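Posting this for the archive.
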Amino acid sequence: MEKVTPFLMFQGGKAEEAMNYYTSLIEDSEITSISRYGANESGDEGTVMHATFSLKGQEFMCIDSNIKHAFSFTPSFSIYLTCDSEKEIDNLYEKLITDGQALMPLNDYGFSKKFGWINDQFGVSWQLNLPK
């Protein structure tokens, strides 16, 4: 086995938008490769056939599914971020919650200084933690 990489499947052509959004929010992050469907291929032309991006050195893969599925993302798998400051966690929470949903609003739950768990506008689940 070479490595393990989280894989995100988007529907509705949202993969590139999500990657651009995530890499704009988190320092030291970038889209590392992207290939798109062309004309007369199995996906909608211009949507993401396969892409990779990294957030703080953690690599992710993603696609735009060309098949409609009865499932999407679930909070039982989430991206966990350990923040360095209150300003950083507040800023990330505010941006990621926009058009999303709070699962655990940003607060002190006793196990950390500040913690929040949300689903973002794309349905991806994030846990934001500021350790004690």
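The radius of gyration is 16 Å. Residues 97 and 120 are 6 Å apart (CA to CA).
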